[in-house]
Amino acid sequence: DTEVTQTPKHLVMGMTNKKSLKCEQHMGHRAMYWYKQKAKKPPELMFVYSYEKLSINESVPSRFSPECPNSSLLNLHLHALQPEDSALYLCASSQADRKADTQYFGPGTRLTVL
Amino acid sequence: EDQVTQSPEALRLQEGESSSLNCSYTVSGLRGLFWYRQDPGKGPEFLFTLYSAGEEKEKERLKATLTKKESFLHITAPKPEDSATYLCVPQGGKLIFGQGTELSVKP
Question: Taking the mean position of all CA atoms in its chain, how far away is CA B55?
Fold first, then answer.
């Protein structure tokens, strides 16, 4: 099973709202990732958690706040977003080994900020 | 600086018309190269991992090959359901996503 699940599938929020995106995997992977993808563009890395610790933050604005409660779950807390933050948000997971580390992606959450 | 370039940007084929997608890369300390398929509005779907030059992998109508500077994704006798964007992603220190090739297969 190589499934990564994400909820919700779609989210519409105002600029003053607080919402969260959720991601779950049961493959025993120890690395989890958040990506942002705009239309017709490749995914852009936002955050990496390795063994439940934040290892990479690609200079993401503080209105995005990641959280890794345990090795299977990854959250992305959203607050005071801007319309330009509207995008497809992808979660991925991998084994976190030293060879080429295949990432498996979830279906994504389509976020619209009004 | 690590770079990856995919060509063509878009490719239109008739059903059954075989072709190849190209991925040129410059990556220090290549650990591997991934191919993904992505349908509109969905997450990338893993296809292949290639670890070293000369390696080949196949899955149904797709075959991926790797040299020291390029990777090719060969599509044999494509069907309309093969229509998608194909992403080439070499990994050095981190993943480097290509811009993708948007493949359209018409019946």
Answer: 14
Write down the residue that tokens 């390029």 correspond to.
Answer: B70
- Tell me if chain B has a CB within 8 Å of the CB of A102: yes
Shortest alpha-carbon distance between residue A43 and chain B (Å): 7
Name the pairing type of β-strands A4-7 and A18-25.
antiparallel
Measured distance CA(B107)–CA(B39) in Å, rounded = 18
Could you give the maximum distance between any two Cα atoms of chain B, in Å? 42
Tell me which residue in A100, A103, A110 faces B51 most closely, judged by beta carbons.
Answer: A100
pLDDT digit string, tens, across residues A13-71: 998 889 999 999 999 999 999 999 999 999 999 999 999 999 988 889 999 999 999 99
Q: Hey, which residues does B86 pair with through a beta bridge? A: B37, B101
Q: Exposed, middle or buried: residue A42 (CB in 10 Å: 0-12, 13-18, 19+)?
A: buried
